[in-house]
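Q: I have 308 residues here and want to know how they pack in 3D. Can you give me a structure?
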Amino acid sequence: MTPARSLLPRRVLGVLALAVLAAAGCASVSAESSSAFSAFSASTLQLRDGADASLGVVQERIRDRYIAEASAGDVAKLESLLLAQPPGDPFGWSSERAPLFLQTARFRDGVRRLNSVLVGYAGALEQMASPALVSPQTYDQLATDLNGNLKAALGSMGVAPPNRELAIFSTVASGSFKAYVQNQQRSTLLKALQENQPAIDDVAQQGAAAVRIAALAYRNEYDLASQKLAQKKAIRELAELDDRFIKELAGLRTLAQSYQMLPAAHRELAAGRGDPASGLPMIRELYENGRELYRLYEQLNADDRRTR
């Protein structure tokens, strides 16, 4: 399996390095904040593509295991492959007992949607911090679209939205964001970021919770498969299953950690400048997590090629 699109070009490493230098230096929005926001944008892109690649190969692995069991004459597994159209959704699908690989497909779609919301948010901030400011009308439409996409993404990830506002651009912060678009005052942008911090905290919490739910589903599937192999005393197959399961969990752990560190990365922007001694450590770590997810994809893909 190969990703649908290549990951970020290597020049993003230069963007991150420049952001570290800028964070320790000048105080203007165009130099300091723009570089930091460019680094944040690069990190969200890396996270989105790395997560999608790793979840894609995991989905294929789980599907192959399911097909092997269904081909052995398991009627229930065969019937679970029959998909229905959800009411009023010509592009959706549903299954009363969706097998794990189909649940993973839905989860993968939700993760990509959620990460695309983060990419859109980071890109909007990067544009706001640059000379090419967005208009108030563009901001309104962007906020509406991203907030709507966020709710759809979490639904695909298996998280029930809480009974409160859930938004990437919060209502509380919208006034300050609009004021910044109009007056371009650095202090107004920092105020908007600080006011929006609770929204980012909430989104990160929901994302991490969804990954933990997925990990439980993977573990249940592993428990059933490993017990069958243990009963058959299929030592080699059980060892290979263990190896795959450990690597799949490693990808989910890295993804969950990425969402958990997202609030701290956002606070580096809201603080107005990085630590001169360490630059933008959480933004950099977020980027490295995206790279780690892609490394896991390559490792899983290589393992699959050796066993086929």
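Q: Anything worth noting?
A: The radius of gyration is 21 Å. The chain is about 75% helix and 0% strand.
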